[in-house]
C-alpha cells in the first residue's frame, strides 16, 4: 500500500482543496482565525482581540496593540501560568503538552506549548508536502510506500503536574494518524529510548529487517547512522542495505556542509527535501523539485511577520529592540534578511523564533534560512552570516574533495585588533593552513563587508582541524545528544569559554 493511495478523511480533503488566494489574503484569514479562537483568553482580553477583529486593517491593528515577545518575556508573563494548570491563558483550554526545546545554545530547556490545534495544522502541512511529491520528475514512487526511518529524540514523555513534556517528535508520534504507523521506523519501542548511543545501536541492529525509502532527521546524526550501518555490515554504501532509499527529509540546519559527506555514503543519487519544522510549528517546506527555497505555510495555522535583520532592529548581541519594524508578507523584499515573528494555534503571539530567513521568490513565498539572530559574526562590521559560512565550507570541501560534517567559529581579540577562529571537524588528511586560506578567500568573494574588514581591523583567520568525535563529545558533555540538537555555528560568551576549556582538557588527557 502506497501512502499516496490512502483514502483521506473528507475534512482533510476539503482543507487541501482550499483556493490559492494571494499570500496577504491567506495570512489575514489565518490571523482572524487565531484572534477569534483566542479572544476570550486572558491574553486576548488584555490585548483587545475583539477590537482588532473589528478593525478595517487587522494586521496593522494587531501590530499596534500586541507587543513582540522572545521566549523569556512570554514565558515569564504568560506561559508559566499554563504550567500551573491554569486554562485559557494564551489559547483556549489547558495546555496538556509541551515541547522541550533548548535551541542551539541555551543551557536550560524551554517549554513550548503544544496544542491539538497546532498538531492538526502540522499534520495538514505534512500531507501537503507528501502530495507535492507527485510533481517531482524521475523519482521512484514505489519508495514512497516503504519505511520512513525518523531519527529524532526520545518519544518517551515526562509527566508533569497535569501535563506531558518532551521532544516534539515524541508528542507527534503519540498523536500521529493511524495510517502512518505501518510506515514509521524505528518503531515505538526504540523511539522511546532516551540513551542516544543505545538508540543508535538498536537501530543499526534492526537495519537489515527494514526496507527504508525515507530517512528523516538532522543531517549530522543521519550521516553518523549511515556510517555505523555501513561499518557494522561491511558495506560499500548504504544502498546495499536499503536499495529503495530514495529520499532524505532534513531540516534545522543547512544541508550544504554535509552534502559531500552524504554522497560518499550513497550508491546512487537520492532526492533531498528540506523542511522548516520547529517546536513552535511547521513553518515551510520544499514543494518543488530542485527549488532554491522552501514554501512558507501561509494558509494554515501560523501568522508571520518579518523584522528586517539590521542595526535598527537588533543590537550587537542579536537581541531585538523593544518596538521593531515588523512587515507583513506582502511588504517584504527578495534578497534581504529578516527575523521571523510567529503567532500560532498554540498561543505564541508575535514570538521571535530566533531564525533569520531570506526570500528567494516573493511571488511563490519561497525562503531560505540564513542563520540565527544570535549566530552571526560582526566584530568590526564584517556582517558574516551563517549562510556565508555554510557556502564557503561547502565550496572548499568540494574543491579539496574532503568531508567537513561540523564546524564552529568564534570572534576573538588579536594584537589589539580582531580575528576569526575556526574549528572544523574533518577526518580526512588536510593542511589547516590551506583550509584557512581557502575559506578566507571564499568568504571575501561571498561577502563584500568581510572583504573590506579583512584589509582593516579583522587581521587574522585562525583554523584548527579536529576529529568529528570531539564535536560529538562536547555535545555529550552538555547533555545535548540526540536528533534535535545541532552544534552552534557561532560561539560566543559562556559557551565559547566552555568549548575552549573542553579542548584544553582534551589536549591534556590525550
Write the layout of secondary structure elements.
Elements: H1 10-16, H2 23-38, H3 42-46, H4 49-54, H5 58-65, H6 71-83, E1 97-101, E2 110-114, H7 116-132, E3 147-151, E4 158-159, E5 164-166, H8 168-174, E6 184-185, H9 188-191, H10 196-206, E7 212-217, H11 219-232, E8 247-251, H12 256-263, E9 271-278, E10 281-285, E11 294-296, E12 302-308, E13 337-344, E14 351-361, E15 366-372, H13 386-400, E16 406-414, E17 417-425, H14 432-446, H15 448-453, E18 458-466, H16 468-477, E19 490-491, H17 493-509
Parallel strand pairs: 1-5, 3-6, 3-7, 7-8, 8-9, 16-19, 17-18
Antiparallel strand pairs: 1-2, 4-5, 9-10, 10-11, 11-15, 12-13, 13-14, 14-15, 16-17
Describe the structure.
Residues 387-492 form the GH3 C-terminal domain. It comes from Sediminibacterium ginsengisoli. This protein has 510 residues and is of the alpha/beta class. The protein has a domain at 386-509: GMP Synthetase, Chain A, domain 3 (2-Layer Sandwich). Helices cover 35% and strands 22% of the residues. The protein has helices spanning 10-16, 23-38, 42-46, 49-54, 58-65, 71-83, 116-132, 168-174, 188-191, 196-206, 219-232, 256-263, 386-400, 432-446, 448-453, 468-477, 493-509, and strands at 97-101, 110-114, 147-151, 158-159, 164-166, 184-185, 212-217, 247-251, 271-278, 281-285, 294-296, 302-308, 337-344, 351-361, 366-372, 406-414, 417-425, 458-466, 490-491. Helix 13 (386-400) crosses helix 14. The N and C termini lie far apart (53 Å).
Amino acid at each position: 500500500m502506497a501512502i499516496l493511495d490512502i483514502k483521506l478523511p473528507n475534512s482533510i480533503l476539503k482543507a487541501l482543496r482550499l483556493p490559492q488566494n494571494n499570500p496577504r489574503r491567506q495570512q489575514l484569514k489565518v490571523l482572524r482565525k487565531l484572534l477569534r479562537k483566542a479572544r476570550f483568553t486572558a491574553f486576548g482580553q488584555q490585548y483587545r482581540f475583539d477590537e482588532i477583529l473589528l478593525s478595517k486593517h487587522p494586521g496593522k491593528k494587531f501590530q499596534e496593540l500586541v507587543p513582540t515577545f522572545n521566549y523569556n518575556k512570554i514565558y515569564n508573563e504568560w506561559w508559566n501560568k499554563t504550567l500551573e494548570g491554569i486554562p485559557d491563558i494564551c489559547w483556549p483550554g489547558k495546555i496538556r503538552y509541551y515541547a522541550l526545546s533548548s535551541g542551539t545554545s541555551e543551557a536550560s530547556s524551554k517549554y513550548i506549548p503544544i496544542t491539538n490545534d497546532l498538531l492538526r495544522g502540522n499534520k495538514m502541512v505534512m500531507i501537503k508536502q507528501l502530495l507535492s511529491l507527485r510533481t517531482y520528475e524521475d523519482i521512484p514512487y514505489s519508495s514512497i510506500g516503504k519505511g520512513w526511518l525518523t531519527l529524532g529524540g526520545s518519544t518517551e514523555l515526562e509527566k508533569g503536574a497535569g501535563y506531558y513534556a518532551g521532544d516534539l517528535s515524541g508528542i507527534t508520534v503519540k498523536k500521529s494518524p493511524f495510517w502512518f504507523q505501518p510506515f514509521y521506523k524505528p518503531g515505538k519501542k526504540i523511539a522511546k529510548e532516551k540513551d542516544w548511543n543505545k538508540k543508535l545501536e538498536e537501530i543499526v541492529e534492526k537495519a537489515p529487517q527494514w526496507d527504508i525509502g525515507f530517512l528523516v532527521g538532522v543531517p549530522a546524526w543521519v550521516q553518523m547512522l549511515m556510517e555505523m550501518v555501513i561499518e557494522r555490515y561491511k558495506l560499500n554504501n548504504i544502498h546495499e542495505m536499503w536499495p529503495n532509499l530514495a529520499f532524505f527529509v532534513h531540516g534545522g540546519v543547512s544541508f550544504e556542509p554535509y552534502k559531500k559527506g552524504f554522497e560518499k555514503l550513497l550508491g546512487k543519487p537520492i532526492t533531498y527535501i528540506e523542511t522548516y519544522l520547529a517546536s513552535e510549528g511547521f513553518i515551510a517546506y520544499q514543494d518543488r523539485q530542485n527549488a532554491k527555497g522552501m514554501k512558507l505555510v501561509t494558509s494554515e495555522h501560523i501568522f508571520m511577520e518579518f523584522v528586517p535583520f539590521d542595526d535598527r532592529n537588533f543590537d550587537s548581541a542579536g537581541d531585538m529592540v523593544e518596538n521593531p519594524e515588523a512587515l507583513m508578507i506582502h511588504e517584504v523584499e527578495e534578497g534581504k534578511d529578516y527575523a521571523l515573528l510567529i503567532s500560532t494555534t498554540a498561543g505564541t503571539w508575535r514570538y521571535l523564533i530566533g531564525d533569520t530567513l531570506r526570500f528567494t521568490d516573493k511571488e511563490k513565498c519561497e525562503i531560505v534560512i540564513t542563520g540565527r539572530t544570535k549566530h552571526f559574526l560582526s566584530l568590526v562590521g564584517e556582517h558574516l552570516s551563517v549562510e556565508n559560512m555554510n557556502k564557503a565550507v561547502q565550496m572548499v570541501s568540494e574543491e579539496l574533495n574532503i568531508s567537513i560534517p561540523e564546524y564552529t567559529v568564534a570572534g576573538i581579540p588579536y594584537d589589539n585588533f580582531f580575528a576569526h577562529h575556526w574549528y572544523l571537524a574533518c577526518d580526512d588528511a588536510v593542511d589547516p593552513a590551506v583550509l584557512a586560506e581557502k575559506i578566507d578567500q571564499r568568504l571575501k568573494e561571498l561577502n563584500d563587508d568581510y572583504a573590506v574588514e579583512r584589509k582593516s581591523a579583522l587581521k587574522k583567520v585562525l583554523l584548527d582541524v579536529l576529529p568529528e568525535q570531539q564535536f560529538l563529545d562536547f555535545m555529550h558533555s552538555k547533555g545535548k545528544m540526540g536528533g534535535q540538537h545541532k552544534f552552534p555555528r557561532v560561539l560566543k560568551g559562556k559557551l565559547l569559554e566552555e568549548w575552549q576549556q573542553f579542548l584544553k582538557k582534551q589536549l591534556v588527557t590525550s
